[in-house]
Amino acid sequence: MKKYMFSAMMLLGAIATKAQSVELIPKVGLSIARQNFKDIDGEKSKIGFTGGLAINIHTKAKGLSFQPEINFVNKGTKLNWEERNTNLTLNYLEVPLLAKYSFGPLYINAGPSVAMLLTKEQDVVKDYGNKPNRFEIGAQAGIGLAIPVGTGKVIIDGRYHLGFTDIVKQMNVKNRGVMVSLGYAIPL
């Protein structure tokens, strides 16, 4: 794992040195999460926290940039299952790798993401009957607005997350959700 992290950091460093400009974007926001259960109804969205740091690396192609991020994200669901109300919470450290295309102040972004489970409520293990998977692979796509303010830009970002991997190995349960965040792009 350390080799992959080192290789990724070297690749990002090489990209950043070839880039025309780089912005650092601290951000905070809300996650509106739910889980997609096969053959179970009654799940409801759960509101949580998201926050993190992005590096927007502009390329020589007009409007195109590459934006790796590292975010803390609350995921989970509210579920009425077998006559019980359950509030399931999973906290992840998530790394999306987004391609971003800007049309003036508006932009769209999309790309893959990988997340590592940090913490879980004790009820999660009992209710799912298994330990949750430690890693999740997914994809994100969104739209945003970059408003010039001072030397940087206020960033308003909205995104949809689609989990591809099951939360536990023996159940068909995947994370889904919307994230809305507010950040500030600081030119470096």
Number of H- or I-type helical stretches: 2
Give the overall average pLDDT: 84
Structural class estimated from helices and strands? mainly beta
Oligomer: single chain
CATH fold descriptor: Porin
Number of domains: 1
Largest sheet: 8 strands, antiparallel, barrel
Report the portion of residues in β strands. over 45%
E-strand count: 9
**Could you spell the SSE succession in H and E letters?**
HEEEEEEHEEE
- CATH architecture tag: Beta Barrel
Name some characteristics of this structure.
8-stranded antiparallel beta barrel, 188 residues, Porin, elongated, 9 strands, 13% helix, mainly beta, 2 helices, single chain
Task: Give an account of the 3D structure.
The chain is 13% helix and 68% strand. The chain is mainly beta and 188 residues long. It has one domain (21-187): Porin, CATH 2.40.160.20. An eight-stranded antiparallel β-barrel has the order 1-3-4-5-6-7-8-9. A hairpin with a 2-residue loop joins strand 5 and strand 6 (106-120). The longest helix is centred in the N-terminal third of the chain and has 17 residues, at 2-18. The protein is elongated, with a radius of gyration of 18 Å.
Summed up:
With 188 residues, the chain is mainly β. It has helices at residues 2-18, 122-128; strands spanning 21-37, 43-44, 46-58, 64-81, 84-103, 106-120, 135-149, 152-163, 173-187. It has two helices and nine strands.
